[in-house]
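pinging the channel bc i need a second pair of eyes. not urgent but kinda urgent?? the chain im working w is below, pasted from the shared doc
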Amino acid sequence: MKIAIIGLGKMGFQIVEKLVAGGIEVVAYDQSNLTIDAAAAKGAIGASSREDVVAKFSGEPAVIWLMIPAQFVESEISAWELLLPKGSTLIDGGNSDYRESQKRAEQLIPKNINFVDVGTSGGILGAANGFSLMVGGSNEGYENIKPVLELLSKPSGSYNYFGPGGTGHFVKMVHNAIEYGVMESLAEGYHLLKEGPYKELNLAKVAEVWQHGSIIESSLNGLAQQALAENPNLDGVEGVVSESGETRWTLESAKELNIEMPVTQAAFDVRIQSQNGKVSYATKLLAVLRNKFGGHVENPK
């Protein structure tokens, strides 16, 4: 099988590496020639333009996976739909608004292009552990890319198909909102431990105990354990926490459906307030956790 990965950032590059290592032929394209060259050094086929990507498929239907920020997806799809042969599959593997993905799936039907939205979770740990892949869109497109999903989910990840265009991104959106709440709860708990009556508590040891058999054992708590062992006071971390859109969209969707999400709203508000100067040990830990699992900058400008 052959697939093109468009966007060679942290996640896109990992996907290229994992697919190449698994024996899948990968065409790699990015705005940066340096990242294209780096992907080629890993065994991918470098492409110099969108047209060159399509040419690599020798006139056959192409499989294109976009791994780019949400704000660029619309223009990219507009460009690709003019180039792709009928029967091609176009995948949005980033964190797009599911409502936009619904529209894009409908938009591509007359073009006979299979649109697939893949919510991709696993962060910078996904290459080693296996990604969690939430799939929506064209069923035909899903069947076309099953070998890719199977490989990306190894050794301990998972994937599944949830329904028409937008469902993959909807499931991923809610996943990220839950992530906000869990991260906030952990950060608040460790903040209380640090500022509580027992000033010499070793928080890394607390996290280690919790990480073995307790009910809150989790990937996020494991990353908290690492962070607290490396930098107990979180020195040098400003505590400003970014938000990337998915939880904002979740709250908008919940409001439309008259569903209350007080925990998610509170976690979202903490991040917004941190951007306005209200920082604490808890927001510092949030920033460090985002760096640990997603490679996000600890001190965003």
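so The chain has 13 helices and eight strands. and Residues 51 and 179 are 38 Å apart (CA to CA). — does that match what u expected or am i reading it wrong
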